[in-house]
């Protein structure tokens, strides 16, 4: 919580700001392999810097900086009167500023109306100087804006916290108590007599109630923590985001939710719009071919590469077959779904799209002529290896998907990607105020959260009912 932290290592010191910028610069200069190996270091530094920065902004900028300076430089007799005046400005300062703006504007308009030079008035400097003094002494009215900005960064920050090290798993949430209290997020005091599931459940409830939003549910992925509700994220396991792009699956609806008496059930308004029909085969994680011993060098890597190429080629065929020709261009859908974890809103992706088109043409190429010499997947691997950007894109997408998410097709022919635990028969639901579709599993009349999903064609509210009477209560357990 220091204003200007100093990092000390032995006899050497460096300002926290310089360390933060230096590590990020080093990661930018590193190649892909080193960047992945060092991912925990920038993650931890980004989390710490974001929390420190927002704590500083909210606590320091919520008051006029001159207030403390003035109070420390006045006598005890006059400080009481000055404090009352500053307290008055905290409440009514912005109203006074608007009044000053109005007086200045009217003075200028009146002088212009009578043909006088607008700025040549001995009266005008008085409201201008008074306005400047009020502006300096009045606290900024951006506390709510800062809170909203903090929340937008908070979910990604919490995702990174899941990758950091702790001795006791409850400290993933208990360690945030002091900072969160100072920025206005009310949490229960740490109680080490509680189980991990209890601590995580209380923390998640507190975050939902503070922000009055269900955004934090994006981190809930099955299988969750034992003895914990499925809608509570397991903060002790890494989370790999499926959705990075801008989405409004529930349009601009407001979140509607309530908790059961023991906070074990989360009741929300929503609608089930589809069902998972078919899950495609999963990719295998690609290990570094130089990590193994010399006898196994390349053998396991090659077999996994062949498997992934074969699965990816099968995906393109399955998408066309199971989507019931819902989409005009399968390549467009495949590109957006494959890269759903990559692009932010309005980010230029034309260059990546060009590489994808070449990569996609290799996957869908007719390799029947060479099938008598070697399998089609071998021909595709050779074609990819001959082009470095294509090979890099292929390996990047395999690493981003394998062991993290799977592709599926719904009963209505929509193509999507979701958590590894997604299965045929799972429901596709949209909750009021929640940006992404949720994969839910029916448990009697209730539902368990499998995880958030990207489903091309319903991410911008296309499946959200116009008639709110069609919404039903969805009880998450």
In whole angstroms, the N-to-C terminal distance is 37 Å
Q: Report the total helices.
A: 15
How many strand segments? 11
Summarize model confidence as the mean pLDDT: 81
State the major sheet: 9 strands, antiparallel
Question: How does the overall form come out from the CA principal axes?
Answer: elongated
Alpha-carbon Rg, integer: 28 Å
Structural class of the helix and strand makeup?
Answer: alpha+beta
- Give the ordered list of helices and strands: EEHHHHHHHHHHEEHHHHHEEEEEEE
β content, as a range? 5-15%
Helical content class: 40-55%
Instruction: Pick out the low-confidence regions.
Output: 290-297
Our count of domains comes out at: 3
Written description of the protein model:
By secondary structure, the chain is an alpha+beta fold. It folds into three domains: 66-137; 212-282 and 405-477, no CATH class; 284-402, no CATH class. The protein has helices at residues 16-29, 32-37, 40-60, 66-72, 76-113, 125-137, 143-161, 171-174, 177-182, 196-211, 299-322, 330-338, 350-363, 376-385, 388-401; strands at residues 6-9, 12-15, 257-259, 266-279, 405-410, 415-419, 427-431, 438-443, 446-452, 454-455, 472-476. The strands form two sheets. Strands 3, 4, 5, 6, 7, 8, 9, 10 and 11 form a nine-stranded antiparallel sheet that branches. Strands 1-2 form a two-stranded antiparallel sheet. A hairpin with a 2-residue loop joins strand 1 and strand 2 (12-15). The radius of gyration is 28 Å and the shape is elongated. Residues 290-297 have low confidence and may be disordered.
């Amino acid at each position: 919580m220091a204003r200007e932290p100093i990092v000390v290592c032995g006899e050497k010191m460096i300002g926290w700001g310089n360390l933060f910028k230096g590590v990020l610069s080093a990661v930018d200069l590193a190649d892909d392999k080193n960047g992945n190996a060092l991912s925990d270091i920038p993650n931890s530094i980004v989390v710490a810097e974001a929390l420190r920065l927002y704590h500083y902004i909210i606590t320091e900028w919520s008051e006029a900086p001159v207030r403390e300076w003035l109070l420390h430089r006045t006598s005890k007799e006059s400080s009481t009167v000055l404090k009352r005046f500053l307290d008055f400005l905290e409440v009514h300062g912005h109203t006074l500023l608007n009044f000053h703006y109005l007086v200045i504007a009217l003075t200028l308009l009146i002088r212009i109306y009578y043909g006088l030079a607008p700025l040549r008035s001995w009266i005008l400097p008085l409201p201008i100087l008074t306005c400047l003094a009020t502006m300096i002494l009045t606290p900024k009215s951006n506390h709510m804006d800062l809170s909203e900005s903090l929340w937008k960064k908070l979910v990604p920050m919490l995702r990174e916290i899941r990758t950091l090290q702790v001795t006791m798993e409850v400290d993933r949430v208990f360690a945030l108590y002091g900072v969160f209290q100072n920025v206005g997020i009310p949490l229960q005091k740490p109680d080490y007599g509680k189980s991990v599931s209890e601590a995580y459940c209380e923390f998640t409830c507190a975050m939902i109630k503070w922000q009055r939003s269900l955004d934090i549910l994006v981190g809930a992925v099955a299988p969750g923590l034992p003895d914990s509700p499925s809608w509570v994220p397991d903060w002790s396991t890494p989370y790999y985001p499926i959705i990075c792009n801008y989405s409004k699956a529930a349009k601009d609806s407001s979140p509607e939710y309530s908790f059961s008496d023991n906070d074990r059930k989360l009741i929300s308004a929503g609608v089930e719009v589809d069902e998972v029909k078919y899950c495609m085969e999963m990719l295998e994680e690609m290990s570094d071919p130089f990590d193994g011993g010399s006898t196994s060098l390349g053998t396991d890597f090659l077999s996994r590469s062949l498997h992934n190429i074969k699965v990816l080629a099968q995906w393109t065929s399955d998408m066309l077959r199971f989507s019931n020709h819902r989409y005009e261009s399968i390549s467009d859908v495949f590109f957006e779904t494959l890269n759903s974890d990559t692009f932010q809103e309005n980010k230029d992706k034309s260059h990546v799209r060009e590489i994808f088109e070449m990569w996609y043409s290799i996957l869908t190429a007719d390799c029947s002529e060479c099938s008598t010499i070697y399998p089609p997947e071998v021909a595709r691997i050779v074609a990819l290896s001959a082009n470095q950007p294509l090979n890099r894109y292929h390996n990047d997408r395999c690493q981003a998907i394998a062991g993290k998410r799977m592709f599926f097709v719904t009963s209505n022919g929509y193509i999507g990607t979701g958590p590894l635990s997604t299965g045929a028969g799972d429901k596709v639901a949209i909750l009021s105020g929640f940006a992404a579709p949720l994969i839910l599993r029916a448990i009697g009349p209730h539902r368990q959260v499998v995880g958030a999903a990207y489903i091309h064609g319903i991410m911008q509210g296309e499946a959200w009912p116009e008639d709110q009477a069609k919404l039903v209560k969805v009880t998450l357990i």
